[in-house]
Specification:
By secondary structure, this protein is of the alpha+beta class. It has helices spanning 12-29, 31-34, 43-58, 61-65, 101-106, 122-143, 150-160, 172-178; strands at 68-74, 82-85, 94-100, 112-114, 117-119, 186-191, 194-203, 206-212, 218-220, 223-234, 239-240. Bound molecules: zinc ion (ZN).
Amino acid sequence: MIPLSFSTNNTPNEITRIRGKILADLMAQDAGFARVPVRSISTKTLKRMLQLYDTWFFSSALLKYYSTFDVTMSSRLLKSAGKFITPGRKNAKTCEIRMSSDFLFRLGTGTYKLNGLIAHSPQEAFLIVFEHELCHAIENAIYGSTGHSSRFMFFAHGIFGHTDTVHSLPTRQQEAAASGIKVGSRVSFDFEGKRLVGYVSYVGKTARVMVPDPRGNYHLESNPHQKFLKYQVPLSMLHVY
Ligand SMILES: [Zn+2]
């Protein structure tokens, strides 16, 4: 257990002011991060973001507790905008916050609703996602576990003014669904000079499309007698058929 040396009773004005200060600091030192859409974010910026948050919101409690605290970007994190990771061992003093570059780099000017707040830019959305993950880090440091319980919300609300744990940032799946492509959709695409027609079985950065073909070695549960070949197709190449 670590004692609560920081405020869990911040006013909305205070929170907005400090978040704005952090945002301005990070954007001033990282041109790639300051652009819309965001083009890049440096390791130095990620490190500084953690340090500034720890100093101004946690009275340095996080970096006092954790001996290793990594903040990383991942292009493979597709289903969530951020993730708090800590080894299963009790009292492990290492952790990682993994942030999704896939989400960050796709965001336009906004606005976005996140954790009950409104973000006015992709950069602010990024910080609010990070704040959520920091609350997992502090809850884990104090109690040895973390989730989305009322205990978590006490921190998320008291420190950052979050009133919810959901966000409206578009996932790849939602973007695809908006264009009519989802799992089960019948789609067509051009491949080596031919137009192929198949069924979408997964949507990520690309879609997996199962195309009926006697040479295939895949079967679909819904269609066990037919053979299929599997294709990975960029979403932009697919047409709803
Ligand atoms: Zn969470």
